[in-house]
């Protein structure tokens, strides 16, 4: 069978030379490199708002998901002129803020996009997040746990959006009005997590060491902090089934959806139907609640 060596993609005034377009990246799904890059192009209006202005860490898989992989923080070289960078801590990060940059990263087999909690130009966060991290690879109680977090937030008059990690867990994403610092948000996360552990000791834990968690679901309120990263909304993940980190509705939580249901094969249709659930969520004011919490 003939295998193309190279395909040229035209992006307005830019051209991207895509080598080995027929290479299988997700063999179980039959997703080739060309299809992956084309899907990224369709996802770009939804993904780029969450990567623009943040420090990017990618995971590259030059031989597909079953091959050798490596994390990359420093911008690959040589880089096209349209790729912007930002320096921090001796690292020159890619600023993933345009369609050509996204597709260039995809052409380099970047299969996951992890972004910093902190923004490049603003030290005051605009989002609070809680990482719900199961100890078990397959956790049948995951959506029960997510619903309990959502119920507690609702009781405080707050609205948030669950987002599958694309792996085994879920992150709760709450757009907030700027004002609280990352330390303030950690106090809020600790309050939420400690309360849930006290109320549901057979389900939740805040134990950092995985070996000490048993089968409990870890509430990681520490991961959302300056310098730390989490998968961006709409980031693919390098796992079988080609899952995508996807915002979901509370109705879907109640239906006990599985994170693997959202993948590169169906994400574009989902976005056309549902839009971006995080962008549609109103920003919450945490200042009144923070005033009532202990300072430490």
TrEMBL record:
Name of a matching Pfam family: LigD_Prim-Pol
Domain DNA ligase D polymerase: 32-277
Annotated InterPro entries: LigD_pol_dom, NHEJ_LigD
PANTHER family: BIFUNCTIONAL NON-HOMOLOGOUS END JOINING PROTEIN LIGD
Protein name: DNA polymerase
Species per Swiss-Prot/TrEMBL record: Cohnella kolymensis
């Amino acid at each position: 069978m003939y295998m193309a060596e190279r395909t040229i993609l035209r992006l307005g005034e830019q051209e991207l030379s895509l080598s080995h377009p027929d290479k299988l990246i997700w063999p179980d799904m039959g997703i080739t490199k060309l299809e992956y890059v084309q899907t990224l192009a369709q996802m770009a209006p939804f993904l780029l708002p969450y990567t623009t202005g943040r420090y990017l860490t990618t995971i590259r898989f030059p031989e597909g998901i079953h091959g050798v992989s490596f994390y990359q923080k420093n911008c690959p070289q040589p880089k096209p002129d349209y790729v912007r960078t930002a320096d921090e801590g001796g690292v020159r990060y890619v600023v993933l803020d345009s369609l050509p940059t996204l597709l260039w990263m995809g052409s380099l087999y970047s299969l996951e996009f992890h972004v910093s909690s902190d923004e490049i130009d603003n030290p005051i966060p605009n989002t609070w997040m809680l990482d719900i991290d199961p100890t078990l690879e397959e956790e049948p109680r995951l959506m029960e746990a997510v619903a309990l977090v959502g119920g507690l937030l609702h009781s405080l008059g707050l609205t948030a959006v669950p987002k599958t990690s694309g792996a085994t867990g879920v992150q709760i994403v709450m757009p907030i009005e700027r004002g609280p610092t990352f330390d303030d948000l950690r106090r809020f996360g600790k309050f939420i997590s400690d309360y849930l552990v006290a109320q549901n000791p057979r389900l939740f834990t805040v134990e950092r060491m995985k070996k000490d968690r048993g089968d409990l679901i870890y509430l990681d309120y520490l991961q959302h902090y300056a310098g730390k990263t989490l998968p961006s909304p709409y980031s693919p993940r390098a796992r079988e089934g080609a899952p995508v980190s996807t915002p979901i509705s509370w109705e879907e939580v109640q239906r006990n959806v599985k994170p693997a249901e959202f993948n590169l094969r169906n994400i574009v249709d989902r976005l056309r139907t549902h839009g971006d659930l995080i962008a549609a969520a109103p920003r919450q004011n945490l200042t009144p609640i923070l005033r009532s919490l202990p300072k430490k």
